[in-house]
Every structure is written in structure tokens, then in C-alpha cells.
Amino acid sequence: MDKLKKSLFWILPSLLALVWAIPLFWMIVTAFTNPTYRMTLFPSTGFTLDNLRYVWEAVPFDAYYKNTIFIVVVTFCVQFVLSTLAAYALAVLDFKGQLLVYVIIFLQIIIPNDVLIIPNYMTISDLGLVDTKLGIMIPFFGSALAIFLLRQTFKSIPKSLTEAAILDGASIWTIIWKIYMPNAKSAYLSFAVISISYHWNNYLWPLIVTNSVENRPLTVGLAIFAKSKEANMQWANVTAATFLIILPLLVAFFIFQRQFIESLTHSGVKE
Amino acid sequence: MKNNLTAWGLMLPALSFILLFTVFPIIRSIYLSVMDFRFGMAEPRFIGLGNYVRLFHSDLFWKVMGNTLFFALITLVPALLIGLGLALIVNKKSKITGTLRTIYFYPVILPMVAAASIWMFIYMANNGLWDQIARFIHMGPTDVLSRQESVLPALAVMYVWKEAGYVMIFFLSGLQSISPDILESARLDGATGWKLFRHILFPLLGPTFLFISTVELTNVFKLVDHIIIMTEGAPNNASTMLLYYIYQTGFTHFDYGLSSALTVILLVMLLVVALPRFIAQDKKTYYN
Amino acid sequence: MHKNWKKVISSLFTLMLAILLVACGNKNDKKEGDGPVELEFFYPVNVGGPATKVIDQIVADFEAENPDIKVNPVYTGNYDDTFTKIQTAVQGGTPPDLFISLATHRFTMEDLGIVEPLDHFIEADKDGKEYIEDFLPSFMEDSYVDGKTISIPFQRSTMVLYYNKDLFKEAGLDPEQPPTSWDELIEYSKKLTNDDHFGVGLALNSGSAQWSFGGFSLQNSKDGGNLMSDDGKKVFFDTPENIEALQLWIDLQNKYEVMNKGIVQWTDLPTQFLAQEVAMIYHTTGNMGNINENAEFEFGTAFLPGNKRMAAPTGGGNFYISKDISDQHKEAAWKFIRFATSTEQLTNWSLNTGYIPPRQSSIDSDEMQKYYSEIPQARVAYEQLEVAKPELTTYDAAQVWRILNDSIQSAITGEKTAAEALKEAQANADAVLERYQGE
Questions:
Q1: What's residue B283's pLDDT?
Q2: Which domain holds residue B82?
Q3: Hey, are the CB atoms on A232 and C48 less than 8 Å from each other?
Q4: How far apart are CA C250 and CA C247, in angstroms?
Q5: Rg (Cα) of chain C, in Å, rounded?
Q6: Contact B121/A144, CB-based, under 8 Å?
Q7: Alpha carbon of A227: minimum distance to chain B alpha carbons (Å)
Q8: Which residues of chain C have pLDDT under 50?
Q9: CB A254 within 8 Å of CB B102
Q10: Number of neighbouring beta carbons within 10 Å of residue B145
């Protein structure tokens, strides 16, 4: 009886999981079978790599991949350095105008750059950064979320450690490098996940800023292709393209699942 | 003195980017929102509240606002309920729950562009997966994306699919922060199942509810990728939401003044939703 | 203290330098030097078939002939996306040197001062006059603004009726007698509609509906007048004839039930036709190659059925050259345009895509004539040009298009009646165009 109850308890969640998995399942099936005029959930035609091959040849995904990786890595590195410095100042030093800094930081947390497309485009255009990777990245260099997360962690590091180091004649850099950064590894990791997945997935801003293949990231490339009206029964090719783009993310997610989930919990602060 | 200099020195690099790309554009939006400024004009021309007046008199604007709020409503409630349900399901340690959690959560990490590209075909009229299923159960082709009454609900289904896992993890961490002692003593008092949930868990999850609601609400205000890919606002702007409207006015009609006025309205909405929470948090942060 | 401060500054400096280095490392270097002139070329694709490959081929052929010029073709999505990209690029101070955009955008382009008038190039060329005169008048006519030549026709098309001959036979219709009038269209569509397929299909998504509507409007016009005035400053949306035309669409869906309900996408329509889910479709000749290659049935093409008169809208993209680039670039861009619109290249382009070659000499070429005799369906499009007129072309074209599309959709979805919808479109478009009418 208990056993029956228990197994019944699992039916609804499993059905739900089935529904949740359908889009991914259908996408993979469609990407790897010959297209038919009517879509089917289960493959009705033979296995093929043609869709993948076609997409890889027709769309410069290798360039898009390089661009995305470049954007993601550089953005994160710059955020990493700048946020560490700022978080240290906020967490450890007492200074005039702190309140103002907090207000500004919260302002960005409430009003993300995503919605300021018009004025930011004008700024990028004034700086001559239209259609450059720097133009895609630069609005995100100052990350309030990163500063905030790091500051919280830095706060929890006992000040006595710092005081001892100062007595030993250590400079700020040594203190940050030797004491604060090693003690905030998990905060850095969290932020890395948030930052990287955000910039890997970002679409609207790069769409506005970029014009050329040399600077287009994957998301923009995929969207152009998906909307391009290039062929019949396009879904076979578009699912193949989508598959190519999300594969690294999915693999990373399945491996580092726990880290992903925990990190994204922190991103709530962002919004 | 020394602290001041060093601190500002350390703050400055990050802060200057934030000033340049968050604070300055906010001011610029407000400034441009009172200007007539279009592509091709050498100088903006001051028109006071002209852009706002134009918006408030335009049916389209109110339609867009209505769409945005309606979409927020029809995604927020299901996302919260399903997210909570999922959290309650996977809040036990076992192999099955681990797998379930993975499945519920994977859409969260997909780019919206990828999700939209997949769902665009699922929802495709007639030959899409959705309509094939509808045909199978004799509901006929539903053609959801091209009907004004179904386009937002259809997009909402996709969004809830994508977002419920995200909501789930907040409830999970909320559930896990409830001390086992409370649960234990409640159980000793004979509270089980629904009662336990209604009288113990639900009140304790209150703050989590509030938190997720604000997060989700602001998220919805910023949604735009899927509209660009799936509908472009069709049919007759039944799926145009605020940020898409800003994008359209700014980057296809090149009316920067009007677009800035819309941006200011969006900023006010974001502030209204987020401020109460942040005032509370700000105090806490500043004083601890 | 001073020591610390110095360190702070010096490290900041290093950091900024690092950022700058990154910045310069990936900035597009557009320096003029001894190297070849580099041209940036934006182009859209809006039809079936891998047209991007053909463009790449044209560029490769051109570069082989002109080693001192390098052309960098950038595929910028569909027409709407491309138009957006062009304007954002100009706004950002990095205009593409040349681009293909809709012929209908010429007033907007000229108004914004984005494009270079081409007359001085034409005059400077020895054969300039003959070159221009060789273009088919129906296409060349929408290249001018205020007497200036703004653009050169390239990927031009018109709308034709594709029909499935097998389904005609099945329905007891003569496969060699496609409908020639609205009445026949309704009658045939009724006969062709059953549980498996609809009689007729029209794409009504934003960006397509206004094109089809232009055709129906022309067919129903008493005096042959178009949706807009020739100077692009006025539109005539809410005339009784246009309301009648829109009502026909609504009736096809709701009264006769011979057309798929709702808004069928431009891209989905050929697929539905090929899947034999719809027996007749209104679509661009640019899709000829695609349909010819993939149809598993006999298909025919025909003039669009007329009502008060026979008529069809032309459409498609022209070449433009940007204004704010160096003379050297302008000349190189002109050279490329001349090359891409040479008789041979246009012939080749048409054979590969199905677009109508916009030059008479291409039409007359042996290859084209051979193609027409092999695929007689393709000839229909050329013959129909006799009765074709430009599609909706105004100032602020993107906005006016959107207005008409939105209103059409509101009528199709039953939100408004045909008259209400077109009245609203008229009012909204008047508000947009008001700024130009005073001039």
C-alpha cells in the first residue's frame, strides 16, 4: 500500500518532467533527421547529419563562437578586476560619499543596462565603438552585482587578518591578493557563472551594436539565421543551429549542475 | 583622508563605467524624452511633455502597457505556483529528485534566443508540433501565434517553461532555510500534508514569495528577445510589449524622443516595483 | 600615503591601457593606405534558396577582375533587419559603403541624407546612358527621387500566382486555365478546398501583407491609381475600392472559408504549397527556383487575377551608395554595382534565384531565353511586368508599412471591420506624413 502511494506520488512529477523535456527532445530529434512537411515528436525519417553539415557550412558559426568566447572572457576578466577593487573599498575602507556609491550601485541593480538601449547606443556611437566587440562589452564592465556580491563576502572576512598584515608592512595589493581573494573563491565562482551565462545568452544589445560577421556573437547569428527565410522546412536547419549553440552550455550545465543552480540563486540580487 | 583617496581610487574604475553606462543614460533618457529628436535631425528641439502627451493619447501605447501588465500577470502566477510545486517535489534528496531537478532547470540556462527559435517552430501554424498535437486530439490547427487572443498566452507558456526552474531554486533555498526543528515540532503537533504547508511552510515562505515576485516582475518588463524572433509584435501589436516597443520606436522608426519617453516610463515602472525591497535591503547593507 | 596613491594611479593607468589595447585589437581598422580599397556591402535575402552563395560568387568574380578593390559582403538578415542595420550603422558613423535595400526606401534614404545620387557616375560612364536605358521601365521607375537617380535595380521581383496543376485536375478544373478574375479566384478556391487543403493562400504577416494588398488595391482601382502619390507624401488607404479589396481577404477566410484562417507567414506559405496543403499561392517570383526544384507535382504560374483591371505589385531591392564615405570608396562602389548589374551577372543571378533580371539585355540573352523555354512558368513574371506598378513607397516607409500591416491584421483577426481598419491606417499614416506635406 505504502509502496503504491509512493509510486503514485512520483507519477505527476515525472509526467511534468516529461512535458518539460519535450522541447529539448524534439529539437534534438529534428536536428538529426531528414525534414518532413509536418513535424513529429518522434522521428519518422532516417538519421542524418546533413542538417548539421549544412548549417555549419552556411553560417560562419566558427567566427560567431570565437566572438562569443572573446566577449564572455574579456567581460568577465575586466569585471573581475574592477569589482574586486571596488568591493574592497566598500567592504573594508570607511570613506566619505559611501552612501552615494551605494545608491549608484543599487540604481544599476534595479535598472539594468538592458533597458537603456537608446542612450547607450548614442554613447557607443559617440565613442566610435559601433560594430566593435568593445562596444558590446563596455557597458557591462562596471558590474554592480559583482561589486555587491563580493562586498558581502569581503565583509565576512575578519578585519584582524588585515590588521596583522598591515603591521607586517603589506600593501593594499598584497592584502587583496593574499587575503581577500583566496577567501572569496565561492563568490567569484558564483559571479563567474552568472556573468558568463548572461553574456553568452545576451541578444538585444549585441544585435543593436554589431553589423558584421567579425563581431556578431552566437545569439545574433542564430537569430538572423532563424529569421532568414532561407529555405523550406527550415526547422530542420534551425534546430540544428540551435543545437550547435546550446551544446556547450548544456554539457557544462550537466557537469557543473550544482554550481550553476547555486550561483544563479545569487543573481536574484541583480534584478 | 588617506582612506578617502585610496577608497575612491579603488572605486573609480568600476564606478566610472557605471556612471557612464547607467547613470548618464538615465539622465540622457529624461533629457531626450522632452525633445523632438529623430534620425536626420541635427539638433533636438525642446517640446516639453509633447512626447508623453502623444503617448497618452495613443491607443497603441495603452495597448502595449496592457499587454505588458497582462503578460506579467499570466506568467507570474503560474511561474510562482509551478515553481513552488517543483521545489516541494525536489526538496528531498534522492536520485530521482536529482534527475527531476535537472530536467526542470535546464531551460533556465538556454539563451532566450535559442528557446524562442525552438518554440517558434513548435507553435508554427498547421505543421508545427503544437498544431499537430491539436489535430491529433481533434482541436484543429490552433495557429496560436497569429491570433490576438492566444498569442500572449502562448508566449507565456514558453516563458513559464523557461522560468519555472529559476523560481524553483529560490523556493528551494527558502525551504532549506526553514529549520528542521520547526518542522519536527509541527509534526509532533500533528500537522501533516496540507495543514503543514498552509500553517507552517506558507507563512515562512512569505518573504521568498515577495522576493521572487519582484524579481520576476522586473524580468518580465525586460523581456524582448522572444518577441523579436517569434512575432515581431504581430498580430496587430497584440504581442508588442514595452521594451520591444522601445526598440521598435528607437531602432526602426528612429524616433529617439518618443523612444526616450517610453524608456523613462519603463524606468519608473522598474523603480516602483523594486524600490520597497531595496530600501529595506539598503538600510541593512549600510548599517551592518 | 603618497606612495600608495602613486601605486593606485599607476595600476589604474596600466588597467586602462590594457583595456585600450583590447579595444584597438578588435576595432575594425578602416585606414586608407596603399592596400586595396575595402568596401563594406550590406545585403538582405528574402527568398528561398541560398542566395548568399550567389552574392559571394559575384564578389569573388569582381575581386578577380579588380584586385585593387576588396568587397566585404555582410548578410544582414531580411529586408527589415537590413534597413535597421543600415540606419544604425550610419548613425554610428560607420555607414556601409554600399547596400541593397528595398526600392521603397528611397524617399526615406534621400530624406535622411544617407545616400549618394548616382547621376554623376552615370554621366561619367561612356555607356552610362545606354546602361540606364537598358533597365526595364517598371523597375527603373522607382529609382528616382526629385529627378535624381538614387538607386539601381538589382534583386527585383513581382508577385505571381503559383498553382498546383495536380490539384486542379483532381477538382475537375482545367490545369491550363488558372483564374483570371476575383470571381474566378473565389469560384476556383471553393472547388479546390477540402479537408486536406485550402484553395488559396496569402501571406499576411507584417512586411508581406502590404505587398499583396498593393496588388489587390491596384486590381480594384478605377483609374489605375496606386496606394500612394508618386512623390511618396500621401497615401490613399481608406478608399471604397481598398475597403472592398480588404473585405475580399476577410471573405476568403471567413465567408467562403477557402483560405487558412489567421496570419500565415511569408516563409511558411511556399512550404505549405509544396506540401500540397494549399492549391494556389500569391508569392514572389524570387521563389521560382525553390518551388521548381522541390515541387513533387506539376505547378503553373499565372498573372494575378484582376478585378477592374489586371495588375501586380513590383518589389525587391536596389543598390544604393552611401553619402558619407570617401570619393575613392564611392567610385569603387559604383564599379561594383556596374559589375553586379552587368548583363551577364544579372542573367546569372536570375538563373540562380528566380528574380526577374531587371535589364532588357539580360532578358534577351540566350541563357535567359533557354531558361524560359525550359521553365515557362518563369516567363509569366516577366510578361506580367506590363501591368505591374511599384509597391507602397512613401517617406518614413518603415513606419507607414507597419501602420498598414497592423491595420490589415486587425481586420483579418476580426478586431475591426475592413473600413474601420483602413480609416485608422489612413489617420495614422497621415499623422506620420504630415511633416512632409508642407514642403
A1: 55
A2: 60-178+204-254
A3: yes
A4: 5
A5: 24
A6: no
A7: 7
A8: 1-3, 5-6, 8-9, 13, 24-32
A9: yes
A10: 26
Please, which contacts does A6-15 make with residues 24 or more away whose CB atoms are closer than 8 Å? A10/B96, A13/B86, A13/B89, A13/B90, A13/B100, A14/B100
Domain ranges within chain A, ordered by starting residue? 65-269
Residue B157: pLDDT above 60? yes
Quickly list DSSP for C243-257: HHHHHHHHHHHHTS-
Please, which pLDDT band fits residue A38 given cuts at 50, 70 and 90?
confident
Whether residues B9 and C9 touch (CB distance < 8 A) is answered with yes
Same domain, yes or no, for B133 and B40?
Answer: no
ipTM over 0.95: no
Average pLDDT of the segment spanning A33-60: 86
Give the count of beta carbons closer than 10 Å to the beta carbon of residue B74: 18
Q: Do B215 and A41 touch (CB under 8 A)?
A: no
Q: Where does A13-145 show beta strands of DSSP type E?
A: none
Spell out the CATH class of C37-156+316-389: alpha beta
Same domain as B236, residue B264: no
Between B148, B253, B254, which is nearest C413 by CB?
A: B148
- The predicted-structure confidence for B170-188, as pLDDT tens digits, reads as follows 898 888 888 778 877 877 7
Which cell goes with C215?
Answer: 496588388
B21 burial type by CB count under 10 A (0-12 exposed, 13-18 middle, 19+ buried)? buried
Identity (one letter) of the amino acid at A260? Answer: F
- When pLDDT is cut at 50, 70 and 90, the band that residue B288 belongs to is very low
Q: How many CB atoms lie within 10 A of CB A160?
A: 8
| B40-57 tens-digit pLDDT | 788 899 999 999 999 999
Residue A21: which of B75, B93, B105, B164 has the closest Cα?
A: B105
Q: Is residue B45 one of the residues assigned to a domain?
A: yes
> What DSSP string describes B73-89?
HHHHHHHHHHHHHHHHH
What pLDDT, on a 0 to 100 scale, did the predictor assign at position C20?
53
Residue B14 belongs to a domain: no
- Radius of gyration for chain A, computed over Cα atoms and rounded to the nearest angstrom: 23
CATH architecture of the domain formed by C159-314+393-437:
3-Layer(aba) Sandwich (3.40)
User: Where are the domains positioned within chain C?
Assistant: 37-156+316-389, 159-314+393-437
Among C372, C373, C376, C374, which residue's Cα sits nearest to residue C357?
C372
A192 interfacial to chain B (CB closer than 8 Å): no
**Rounded Cα distance, C74 and B175, in Å:** 52
Nearest to B40 among C88, C113, C261 (CB): C113
User: Does B284 have pLDDT greater than 60?
Assistant: no
> Phi and psi for C160 in degrees, rounded to 5?
-130, 170
Q: Note the CATH architecture for domain A65-269.
A: Orthogonal Bundle (1.10)
Residues of B in contact with A227 (CB under 8 A): 229
Q: Do residues B114 and B152 share a domain?
A: yes
Residues of chain C positioned with their CB less than 8 A from the CB of B244 = none
**Same domain membership, residue B38 and residue B139:** no
Binary contact (C271, B9; C-beta < 8 A): no
Could you tell me which residues come within 8 angstroms of residue C122 by beta carbon, excluding any fewer than 6 positions away? C128, C129, C131, C132, C149
Strand positions, DSSP E, C242-385: 278-284, 299-302, 312-321
| CA triple C37-C40-C43, angle to 5 deg | 145
Residues 6 or more apart whose Cβ sits within 8 Å of residue B137: none
pLDDT at B120 over 80: yes
B167 in any annotated domain: yes
Q: What is the pLDDT of residues A144-161, one digit of tens each?
A: 999 999 999 999 988 888
Q: Please indicate, yes or no, whether residues B110 and B217 belong to a single structural domain of this protein.
A: yes
CB B91, CB A247: distance < 8 Å: no
Q: How many domains does chain B have?
A: 2
Burial C392-429 (b: 16+ CB within 10 A, else e): bbbbbbbbbbbbbbbbbbbbbbebbebbebbbbbbebb
Asked whether residue B259 is domain-assigned, the answer is yes
